[in-house]
Design a protein that fits this description.
It is built from seven helices and 18 strands. By secondary structure, the protein is an alpha/beta fold. A hairpin with a 5-residue loop joins strand 3 and strand 4. The longest helix is centred in the first third of the chain and has 26 residues. The N and C termini lie far apart (49 Å).
Length: 347
């Protein structure tokens, strides 16, 4: 009896300790490193939204469509995306492709990338109807600007942010057309939905017609904006085909490459260590050699998990997430580097 009471007491104490420690780490992910004055490093303070997966379907080969519902979902506009927190803790970004008028409901689509970094495989295997899924509130780097006419160009899963734009452009009375390309028709999602727009939509499957002809983009009507989402090769081709590249708006699945990478030194102010960042490695990789518990997730400069404060040095920003107010004194370790020989981080 005494032994049972002792075991129960120890287990209870361990539970309370773990809970207290978990709360402490959530408040400051880098604890128990010693703090400098006003440390701000760690996870970006973004609210999590708890949703329920109410529908799971496959609109094309290798594509998963999820409908998510929650009364706390914020309003959004065409072009927005959300950070999805997968069951493993990985964070991935997916465009919202439903109807913004449907309050409390989001729709996303996930292309399975067999040789990717694992996020899409986890989504396809584990995100089932009836399961809960956490999101961060929508962000929009691909807003639909008012214009008298539009040309939309989508490649494969790049159709997802374009779908809500078509509804909005139609509702505004703008003239528009869509060129939608993919490897094969069975791999191109949302074809039935697009058929309702008639001859405004041109579908080109590469196994039937080859690569799309973009020559018509060289003679667009004045005021026409071009919105493109898809593989890098397609976005480069679209930008190169138009007479005025400033009319093109792009949504990227990966960070845009910066200039030549050079080695530099990083000083970790709180831990008192110094690391060398080679030209062929990320700042995050080098820092994690010394601080293996440094948090990260997407490794593409989108989710903000590896955002940290910069105390000294000049930053080579290669992300599309940080605001102008954040850029002078913080960076995303996974993609950004230094233009100065030395950076000092609040780590």
């Amino acid at each position: 009896m005494r032994r049972a009471l002792t075991v129960t007491a120890v287990a209870g104490a361990a539970f309370l300790t773990r809970r207290a420690l978990s709360r402490r780490i959530r408040r400051s992910p880098l604890w128990p490193l010693p703090a400098l004055e006003n440390p701000v490093s760690g996870h970006s303070p973004r609210r999590l939204l708890r949703t329920l997966i109410v529908s799971r379907s496959e609109p094309a080969r290798g594509v998963l469509r999820l409908v998510l519902e929650s009364p706390e979902l914020p309003a959004w506009a065409p072009g927005a995306h959300v950070d999805v927190v997968l069951p493993s803790g990985l964070v991935r970004q997916y465009s919202l492709c439903g109807d913004p008028a449907e309050a409390g409901r989001y729709t996303i689509a996930v292309r399975l990338i067999e040789d990717g970094r694992g996020g899409s495989r986890e989504a396809h295997a584990q995100l089932v109807e009836g399961a809960e899924l956490e999101l961060r509130p929508p962000r929009n780097r691909f807003e639909l600007a008012p214009a008298p006419s539009y040309v939309f160009v989508a490649g494969g899963i790049g159709i997802t942010p374009i779908l809500p734009m078509l509804r909005a452009a139609t509702a505004s009375g703008a003239d528009w057309s869509l060129l939608y390309g993919g490897r094969s028709r069975d791999s191109m999602p949302f074809l039935p939905e697009l058929a309702a727009y008639g001859d405004r939509v041109t579908v080109l499957a590469e196994d039937e017609t080859g690569l799309p002809d973009l020559s018509a983009l060289a003679a667009l009507a004045p005021g026409t904006l071009v919105y493109c989402c898809g593989p890098d090769a397609l976005m480069r081709a679209v930008t190169g085909a138009v007479a005025d590249p400033s009319t093109v708006r792009l949504e990227r699945f990966a960070p845009e490459a910066g200039g030549p990478a050079r080695p530099f030194t990083v000083e970790l102010a709180r831990s008192g260590r110094t690391v060398e960042v080679a030209a062929d490695e990320s700042t995050l990789t080098a820092v994690r050699r010394e601080l293996p518990n440094t948090p990260y997730s997407c490794e593409q400069g989108f989710c903000g998990t590896c955002q940290h404060r910069v105390l000294e040095g000049e930053i080579d920003h290669r992300d599309e997430l940080l605001t102008d107010g954040e850029r002078p004194n913080s960076m995303l370790l996974c993609v950004s580097r230094a233009t100065s020989p030395r950076l000092v981080l609040d780590l």
